[in-house]
Design goal:
The complex is a heterodimer.
Chain A (H helix, E strand, L loop, with lengths): L6 E3 L4 H11 L3 E4 L5 H6 L7 E4 L9 E3 L3 E5 L4 H6 L1 H6 L1 H7 L5 H4 L4 H7 L5 H8 L3 E5 L4 E5 H4 E3 L2 E2 L6 E8 L6 E8 L6 E9 L4 E6 L6 E4 L11 H11 L10 H22 L6
Parallel strand pairs in A: 1-3, 2-3
Antiparallel strand pairs in A: 4-5, 5-10, 6-7, 6-10, 8-9, 11-12, 12-13, 13-14
Chain B lengths: L14 H5 L14 E7 L5 E7 L9 E5 L34 E2 L5 E7 L2 H10 L1 E6 L6 H6 L12 E8 L3 H7 L2 E9 L11 E7 L4 E6 L4 H11 L7 E4 L16 H13 L3 E4 L2 H7 L6 E9 L5 E13 L7 H9 L8 E10 L13 H19 L3 H8 L8 E6 L5 E4 L4 H12 L4 H10 L3 E13 L5 E7 L5 E5 L8 H14 L5 E5 L16 H28 L6 E4 L2 E4 L9 E3 H7 L9 H6 L21 E7 L5 E13 L6 E11 L6 H21 L29 E5 L22 H13 L5 E2 L3 H11 L4
Parallel strand pairs in B: 1-12, 8-29, 10-11, 14-15, 20-21, 27-28
Antiparallel strand pairs in B: 1-5, 2-4, 2-6, 3-5, 7-15, 8-13, 9-10, 9-12, 13-14, 16-17, 18-26, 19-20, 19-25, 22-23, 23-24, 26-27
Helix pairs in contact in B: 8-9, 9-10, 9-18, 13-14, 14-15, 17-18
The complex binds flavin-adenine dinucleotide (FAD).
Chain lengths: 282, 796
């Protein structure tokens, strides 16, 4: 469990990083928090010839909050985002989801943007980005582009990031005022990737959920007519979710158990989000 | 004695060093050494057709590549079968490097030595081994079916069949008014120490000697094994155990292939060589345990008393059996726990599979046995509508029946005779601790809140402190330092503290003046090892006896110097003084000074020697300075060798909550009543229990070895092998019962393995209670509980 040989690069500025990445093309790999990449390299499941360590590029460890969005820079660690008071006020779902990401020590190093780019189908943040119609900002030496969540996640561990590109930020859109959010999941042990997880946003006349662990990636389900009346129309929700998911068995859970969990957790997430919506009895 | 140390919660002297990162583990040593890596079989069963190293030869930093063909003499022969048994008719062991055939994924085929582990792995990646695949035998069912064989010359894949009986159990079952049959299964797990194995060897060409550091539970036996394999006089080999980051059984096996290959390469290359096992290697090339299927027939009377118990089980021993049949022998005997089984018969079949070998893992066959017996107790209670504690109580061996002979032969080849224990008293303590009699109220309350809770319990008896012997050496230095050595090893249990507590009291010296060394063959040559919960019993007794010898010697030297009778003297806080004198200055002498006096050669190097001159008796010119039967120095060696094992026991009660929707299983309370005889250090004992319970929880709810049908271990990493985190281990509530063992001078019984034994049994009992679903197989995951619920509801 020692990585194969690689060349290590440590750019000191964004332009330098982009130049190095441009020069390396396919052969270059960005190193952020290393919490996913380094284990893969140690197991020799990944053997990049060049590692571009962006940890020394200034100006990327940012959490920006405005009226419409929360924008997270490439070097903001999970824990920085989790504990950012303004981000929590603006978008509680981020903290609600981040608490389920691994353990505090891993969140101290792992980056939120890195988690999006890594594109693990069981990861929480991609589901949140989808749920909030977010986007990722990609920069290369030539240009910058903004990719919507829906087109960013292509498949398991596969995203729209191209060789030579650095994801400099991710933008999460704040839901309409009056919305409530929640993130619930079932893991085998505390901090593990979820067997199944559900994030939910419930607004005055809309609701949507994103599910983990029941498809090749996060599964987004819009529940427009299910929320028009109170209480939620459980049967309608069940049918919409059932149609969207396609769970598989693995060593931790049968497909039927995952399907069962999906419905249980959707119910729980919607109830909690509903409950948390401002203006409702706390 | 001013301060008594025995029985006190003395903080561990090891901890400051270990928790500040100043431990010295194997990989902390040998930065000048070459490093080894291994090409391991990716196939579960195959013939080796060809090994091609061409691509590897031009890697910078390559030092050597070895295959079986390079192993000369005894190195090329199979590794030893350590513990043969007459019923082990088909014992097979591996070669240090595979010869012609591989029998499990992970078996070492090629050894690479390079300038670093990184380079060694680069080279391993470039060695091409071609295999001709053979059908793999995976799991007990496949081994029993024997459609394919693991070893061509082992019919039916059967390594051994062993029967023990106290009479015609099946007839007793048939004649009983009530009968039950149960099929019970336990899956594989593993010791999984945080530090894997590791070996560092230095060959001194001038001295023609080897110095080996290895992360083992038995340095003395590794020494013998290396000497034999390398054809060296034993005197030319020393084996030292550095700090060891956990063993839990897997490091008692010896020699591991790497333990002979690394010294062999070091001698061949004339350079130090080191190997540090990584996590993946540990999963696929060390050892696992626990996988067994059991068929039980039991007969009992109207009160739930056992009349006959007949057990057959199938033990998956993996690809080879270097450690013999210890695990199934323990299951077959220790299954009985604190109970009288009526007429008992047990038969086991030990089967080869194309998987990692099976050797004892903390508890060593007992968790399976306990699971079987305790499931039987719960089944009887359910059948007769009795409280589960009542059925147990009725079947207990009573305290006035001790010593109790179960009529079987134990793992050490001796009769299975319980030395002590008061099971009814233990159960009473456990019921009080967990609030057994009040649980129905809690259950009702929880039900009212839409929650589902259950309570379970399990009892066990554990043979501990097995022989044949352990020894101790104690020397008092002239500055008063007391140097204690015992040959068995430490893996973090706190032996330094525990043994020093014993010596402090026995010798009468301050605890702080005592230094304890374990597992260093340069210090102590004769030892067995650290396993079977035996250190306190064996080495504890040995150092106690040694301390008494040294104390006697000190008293007789001091008696001469003080012109007093030995009987009138005592040793207090490192001073020999006249009893009750309270320390008038002429009437006392420091132990360090006694050490000076014990040696007729007395250069005044230090103050102690100078001080001693005031006591020096005028020498008699006609007698030799060291008389017959005397020896210079204040030191002694003694051994402790018991006729039989001690038997510790305990009982655990667990309260679980099962989520009605998600089937998640949460442990709400975990209560332990523990009887390991007298306690040398209750804090250390409780630490051992905590660790054991953590592993018990792991084995019950999280851990399993997930083998694909082709013999690939698909969860060979800590991402997918779910060892419980601290967050999964409940708060553990402990109460002790002390029934001293009559067998040893301290009254102690072992405590090292206890915590793990009843985990699966107690947790299964609690889940069954919460769910009303019979649990016959452990571990259990939420997904499995969900499937059991569906099966009960009759849904597909
Ligand atoms: C034990 C453990 C448990 C975990 N549990 C969870 C969990 O429950 N949920 C979860 O979501 N995650 C979990 N993780 C993963 C963790 O969240 C990672 O930190 C995260 O997925 C990746 O972030 P990173 O900064 O560490 O990325 P790295 O490991 O540095 O990189 C990961 C990948 O993303 C690429 N990359 C990273 N940043 C950029 C960038 N700015 N531009 C372009 N490419 C980039 C890298 O090249 C690499 O391919 C766990 C990790 C561990 C070790």
């Amino acid at each position: 469990m020692k990585p194969a040989p690689f060349t290590y690069h440590r750019p000191r500025g964004l332009d330098e990083a982009l130049e190095v990445l441009a020069a390396l093309g396919e052969a270059g790999k960005v190193l952020a928090g290393g919490q996913s990449l380094v284990p893969l390299m140690s197991m020799r499941l990944s053997a990049p010839a060049h590692l571009v360590d962006v940890n020394h590029v200034p100006g990327l460890a940012t959490v920006h909050v405005d009226e419409h969005v929360v924008r997270i820079g490439a070097l903001a660690r999970h824990s920085q985002v989790e504990h950012d008071a303004a981000a929590y006020d603006a978008l509680p779902l981020l903290r609600q989801a981040l608490r389920h990401v691994a353990h505090p020590t891993i969140r101290n190093r792992g980056t939120t943007v890195g988690s999006l780019v890594h594109g693990d189908p069981a990861a929480e943040l991609p589901a949140v980005l989808l749920l909030l119609d977010g986007s990722v900002t990609l920069r290369s030496a030539e240009r910058a582009r903004e990719v919507e969540a829906a087109s960013f996640f292509i498949g398991p561990m596969e995203t729209a990031l191209r060789p030579g590109e650095l994801a400099v930020a991710a933008t999460f859109r704040r839901p309409a005022t009056g919305s409530g959010t929640a993130f619930v999941e079932v893991t085998r042990r505390h901090g593990d990737y979820a067997v199944c997880g559900v994030g939910a946003v419930v607004g005055a006349s809309s609701a949507r959920v994103a599910l983990l662990g029941v498809g090749p990636g996060p599964v987004l389900v819009d529940l427009p007519d299910a929320v028009r009346d109170e209480p939620l129309d459980d049967e309608r929700v069940h049918a919409l979710v059932e149609e969207a998911i396609d769970p598989e068995a693995d060593i931790h859970a049968s497909a039927d158990y995952r399907r069962h969990l999906a419905h249980v957790l959707v119910r729980r997430a919607l109830a909690e989000a509903h409950h948390r919506a401002p203006g409702r009895a706390a | 004695m001013t301060t008594k140390m025995f029985g006190e919660r003395v903080p561990r002297v090891e901890d400051a060093r270990l928790v500040t990162g100043n431990g010295r583990f194997l990989d902390d040593l040998g930065h000048d050494a070459l490093e080894a890596g291994f090409v391991r079989s990716p196939q579960a069963h195959a013939r080796i057709v060809d090994i091609d190293v061409t691509d590897a030869l031009d890697v910078d930093g390559l030092v050597a590549i070895y295959t079986h063909e390079d192993l000369e003499g005894r190195m090329g022969e199979r590794l030893p079968l350590l513990i043969p048994h007459p019923t082990l008719t088909h014992g097979r062991t591996p070669y240090a490097l595979a010869k012609e055939e591989v029998n499990h994924v992970g078996e070492a085929v090629v050894m690479v030595v390079a300038t670093s582990r990184y380079v060694a792995e680069d080279i391993c990646d470039r060695v091409r081994v071609s295999y001709e695949a053979l059908p793999a035998v995976v799991g007990v069912e496949a081994a029993r079916a024997a459609a394919h064989l693991v070893h061509d010359d082992v019919p039916g894949n059967v390594a051994a069949v062993m029967v023990q009986r106290t009479g015609d159990a099946d007839a007793a079952v048939d004649a009983a008014p009530h009968r039950l049959e149960l099929d019970l299964a336990i899956e594989r797990s593993a010791s999984t120490p945080l530090e894997g194995k590791g070996v560092l060897a230095r060959w001194d060409a001038d001295d023609r000697s080897l110095l080996v550091h290895t992360s083992t539970q038995t340095s003395t036996s590794v020494r013998q094994a290396i000497a034999a394999k390398l054809d060296l006089p034993v005197d030319r080999v020393e084996v030292v155990t550095p700090d060891v980051g956990g063993g839990f059984g897997v490091k008692i096996v010896h020699p591991w292939p790497e333990e002979v290959l690394v010294p062999w390469a070091a001698r061949r290359l004339g350079r130090p060589v080191k190997w540090t096992e990584d996590r993946r290697e540990h999963f696929v090339s060390s050892a696992h345990e626990r996988g067994q299927l059991h068929e039980v027939r039991v007969g009992y009377d109207d009160d739930g008393r056992l009349l006959g118990l007949s057990v057959r089980f199938w033990h998956d021993n993996g690809a080879y059996v270097p450690y013999g049949l210890i695990v199934p022998i323990i299951t077959s005997t220790q299954l009985l726990g604190p109970y009288k089984p009526g007429v008992y018969r047990v038969e086991f079949t030990s089967l080869y599979t194309n998987t990692v070998i099976v050797t004892p893992y903390r508890g060593a066959g007992r968790p399976q046995g306990c699971f079987v017996m305790e499931r039987v107790m719960d089944a009887i209670a359910a059948d007769l509508g009795l409280d589960r504690t009542v059925v147990r109580e009725r079947n207990f061996i009573r305290p006035d029946e001790m010593p109790y002979d179960q009529g079987l032969v134990f793992q050490d080849g001796r009769q299975l005779v319980y030395d002590s224990g008061d099971f009814p008293a233990s159960l009473a303590k456990l019921k009080a601790l967990v609030g057994w009699d009040d649980f129905e109220a809690l259950r009702e309350q929880a039900r009212g809140e839409g929650r589902r809770v259950g309570i379970g319990l399990a009892c066990y008896v554990e043979g501990t402190g097995v022989g044949p012997y352990e020894g101790g050496h104690i020397r008092v230095e002239t500055d008063g330092t007391v140097v204690v050595s015992t040959g068995l090893t430490s893996q973090g249990q706190g032996h330094q503290t525990m043994l020093a507590q014993i010596v402090a009291d026995e010798l009468g010296v301050p605890f702080e003046r005592i230094q304890v060394t374990t597992g260093d063959t340069r210090r102590f040559k004769y030892a067995v090892g650290t396993f079977a919960s035996r250190t306190a019993v064996m080495s504890g007794s040995a150092v106690a006896l040694t301390a008494r010898t040294v104390r006697q010697k000190a008293l007789s030297i001091a008696a001469q110097a003080l012109e007093a009778d030995v009987e009138d003297l005592e040793v207090v806080d490192g001073l020999v003084q006249v009893k009750g004198s309270g320390g008038g200055s002429t009437a006392r002498i420091e132990l360090g000074t006694v050490a000076v006096l014990s040696n007729p050669l007395r250069y005044a190097f230090d103050e102690a020697a100078a001080r001693a001159t005031q006591f020096a008796a005028p020498a008699d010119p006609d007698t030799p300075p060291v008389g017959p039967g005397e020896s210079p120095g204040l030191e002694g060696t003694d051994y402790y060798s018991p006729a039989r094992s001690t038997f510790a026991n305990g009982m655990h009660a667990v309260v679980v909550e099962t989520d009605p929707d998600t089937a998640e299983i949460t442990i709400l309370r975990y209560c332990v009543v523990h009887d390991c005889g007298t306690l040398v250090n209750p804090m250390i004992v409780e630490g051992q229990i905590h660790g054991g319970v953590a592993q018990g929880v792991g084995g019950a709810l999280y851990e399993r070895m997930e083998y694909a049908p082709d013999g690939q271990l698909v969860n060979a990493s800590f991402m997918d092998f779910l060892m419980p985190y601290a967050t999964e281990v409940p708060t553990i509530e402990i109460d002790h019962l002390v029934t001293p063992s009559p067998l040893n001078p301290l009254g102690v019984k072992g405590a090292g393995e206890a915590g793990v034994i009843p985990g699966s049994a107690a947790i299964a009992s609690a889940i069954e209670d919460a769910e009303g679903i019979t649990i016959t197989s452990m571990p259990i995951s939420p997904s499995q509980l969900f499937e059991l619920r569906r099966a009960r509801e009759g849904r597909p």
